[in-house]
Each structure stands twice: as C-alpha cells, then as structure tokens.
Amino acid sequence: MIELSKDDIKCITTFESLTGACVSDCLITDKAVAFIVKHGDLGKAIGKKGSNITKVRQEFARQVLVFEGSDDMEQFIRNLFGQIPVKNINVHEKMESKTAFVHVDEKDRGNAIGRNGDRIKLGRALLQRRFNCDLRLASK
Fold it and tell me: What gap in Å lies between CA 70 and CA 75, rounded to an integer?
C-alpha cells in the first residue's frame, strides 16, 4: 500500500479536477511531478491536442509526467518509457531484492535517461514504490 502525503493528495485532487482522469499515485520531486493514472485514462489526462496536460503544467509550474498504471510489472515498466521502444525486460531476483534490466536501442538511450537523468530516476522511484523493484538500463 502506497502512503500519500497531504501534498500528494492536494496534487492529485488538482490534477483530477483539471483533467477528469483518475490518479492512483503521485510522486513529487524538486523538478517534476509524476502521476500514475488508471488504465485507460491516459488520453483523458492529456486531453484533446494536449489541452489538459497544458493546464496542469501551468498550474504546477514544473515538468509534469503522466504514466498509465498497470498491475503487471513488465507492462508498468513499458508504460514508464512511453514512446521509447523497449526491446526487452529481464528481472533478476537475489535474496530479497529485485532488479529490472531494461534494454532499449542505443539511439533511444538518451531519451530513456532524460535530461540530467531525471526520467530514469523518476521511473526508478515509481517502480520501487509500486513493485519494490530497482530499475536499470542495460547496456548492449
């Protein structure tokens, strides 16, 4: 079970009222706010021609990332990478820890990492929070 702070709940309420999408989780960092929306609500969250996500970005005055939720860890990881094609995902379990190694094309590696590593750090935090699993980009 994910524990939400008062700030998380306030952000979720604002996001839901602006978009009409149902949010299951929210992660706030210094540079960005990430929302996990219910399966099927991603289009609603973005809005026609990006109108809803534009309103949300103006409201929060920082980068806003929206991901579609899934109870399946592999699908959730694919959703974290959005338009970046994921070649494959290997999950390694040692003792009581899990690590998911994600393989992407070399040309997509920069996008997968994000500016200053922001995308991969956010993805790692969300995956840890939801599935207690670490996230690594695998090299060739």
Answer: 6
